[in-house]
Amino acid sequence: MLPAVAAASPTPHTSPSISSRLRRHHLGLSFQTRLLRASARASSPGAGRARLLLAGAFASSDGGAGQDVGSSASTTGSGSAYIGLFVRMLGLDNDPRDREHAVCTLWQYSLGGRKSMDEIMQFPGCIVLIISLLKSESTRTCEAAAGLLRNVTSVQLYRKMAVESGAMEEIFSLLCKSTVTPETIEQCLCTIWNFSIDGNWRYKILRSDVLTKIVNYLDDEDIKVKEAAGGIISNLALSASNHGPLVEAGVILKLVRLLQTKEDDYKIIRKEARSSLIQLASDDYYHSLIIEEGLVRVPLVGSAAYKAFRPLPHSWPSFPDGSEIQRSSRPSKYGATELLLGLSVNEKETKPDEAKIKAMIGRSNQQFLARVGAIELDDEGKDQSGSEKNDLYTILPWVDGVARLVLILGLEGVSAIKKAATAIGDASINEHMCTSFKEAGAVKPLLQLLKHSDITVREAAAYALEKLSVSSTICQKIKAEGGLELLVNAVKDPNNSIEQLEKIIYTLSRIFDRGTTMVDSLDSYDRTGSEDVTNSERSIQGDIETGNNRSSHTSVNQEMASEMIIDFDAISRLTKVMKEGSPSLQAKVCSVLEHLVASEQHATAMTAAFTGSVIEAILEIGVIHGTRGDPENLDDLSIVVTEEVRQAVSAAVRLLTRLLDFDLFVRSINSEKFTSLLRRMLKSNFPLQSKDWFAACLIKLESRAGLSGDHGVSSIDMEITIYEIIPRLVDQMMTSFSFENKRSAVIELNRIISGVTEYIRAVAAAGGIFPLVKMLEEGDEDALEACLAILYNLSMDPENHPAIIAAGAVPLLKRIALAEGPHWTSALQLLRTLPV
User: Which ranges are annotated Low complexity under compositional bias (predicted)?
Assistant: First the structure.
């Protein structure tokens, strides 16, 4: 955007606010008139030489009574001889007041356009003299010098000369002075606006301290200052590398406020703010920040695309999401009830919520604009530099933006529909936006687009549904609209791309997610009984199965419906995707299949589709990644890959645990192979949450092994205790905020180890010494007794002595022994084993 007045200078942007006013006011003025103005400004005492020069110039330009005063050619030619004199008066050896009046005269003369500026700039060193005046103590001189630079830098050639002469640094310095006047601020900002046109120099604005000032000037009372600051930011936003500093300076909130201002004087500022926000929205994170402020990015599809819009025929009114407004019990004979919907809608029991009201307002606004042909202008978006013709956007308030995107979904153009579906997915960043799209009626058309003949439209619709499905209300809406069948049919379609298939599977995974986790089930572990550890593990598995059955009964109707929709072809395709997909996709497929396995029909289909062999392959990859070194020594990419593999393995083990309930599946797998893989992963560096499932699956696999004919499965009770139960109890002591949980963990841990050397070593390896010592200070009598017993067993190994002492056990043990309480003998006995 270019604020200056050079008509002959080709520029990417032209600001009609400043430049057009100056052109209307100054272009066409004769040199005589401009000298008259400059003479008036040079009337202060002590400016004799300047007045004489101005008088001479005026006399030479006065051609007599019959001369045409408006003849610019003759007057400019006669007065240009004096330009050199005024340039020489800018020299440092002249009186400051003569320099002031000279620069004021040249500033006025430069308003004549490119030819006038060429006459000024023809003198070598002129630009350096102008820049030197920016340091003057006179505010009038600084304003005139900045104004002259503003006009000169509107020409690309002279802009480059000014930058090479240090003009940017001097302008920045002047703008940061505390004595700078509002008029000088405007000239400085407009000069920086010119400099910001060239992308190679924008970095200088960012590296200086002036960027914060420029952003703050968006709140200035002077509208011209706001326009200049907005123009600079609009140009800076054209470079993606500048987005970070701009956002850090707090520009988004200020631009949103300017865009929402309705005054007529803010037309240019709104245009600049919109342009800046569109550029910033190209980054996903900054786009989210803009949406959080109540704005939505909407693609420009061309006014011709809206010609296909056809309003619905007259019918009983309904909400945008398709739900019908309740009919009045006393309809009017002449249709007044339909016209005045408030007669029924405003009743307390039928009054719509705020979201529905907003959706109705947005739909009405956008449909009206579409009917009158004013929804999108042909020249809209042409000022978006750096954007492709098919990649233009506008920014709208969320009420209008959501409604327009839904309206575009109903058009005929493939390109328009694809853009709208993609924009809906991009805007679905929180529950508010997802609910807004639901109330606006976006779910049903997006589901129908999954059957569109164009593959790019199907991919865009799948993307939007995947983003929307983060909201539970959207998942319920998809089910209500019959979307489950459409999604399953899309999975079975061999023509769909892997990208579309991945998004559909993600959506199905969220729809099928019933909110139960393994951690919730494991909270019901009964570890306080008097049974041995093996029986405790059996009860764990029983609780898990009971929880699964209970959750299964709550979704019987849902499973009966899914049996009608999901057949062997769908399960076979899902199994194939699980075999060939990425680890993240494998985890989602396993989640979907885990829901389906509640049905024996689906479990039989999975067995026939060789799902067990695919699970085995995933576990083998998990063994490889689980035996790698410390994750802290891996690079970022390796950490991400390893985490995705761990999630896929955990999901596969959960699916395997469910499938083990069916005899047909158990007979089809090699139980020994699965047991070996699970035991190796149980000993690896998988997180504790994953090992919970490994242990549960091992227990069930061991109990079901007899059905497969493999009777050589060895006992795994000790390994589960060492690698899953003990680390869990230690973690519970370290991380739980509940004293009761810590107390129960200590007591259970004491019951488990019972002098078994392997278990004692596992406690030390899991880092249990420090929380045990801490419990000496916090625990009650039972917890204190358990802690002393465990620590005594640990002290039998001299390698644990340094850790026990470092944890601060000695002072606590001495205090317990001296108190001569119920456990003073145990404390004294432990002290005697330590080297103190």
Answer: 1-20
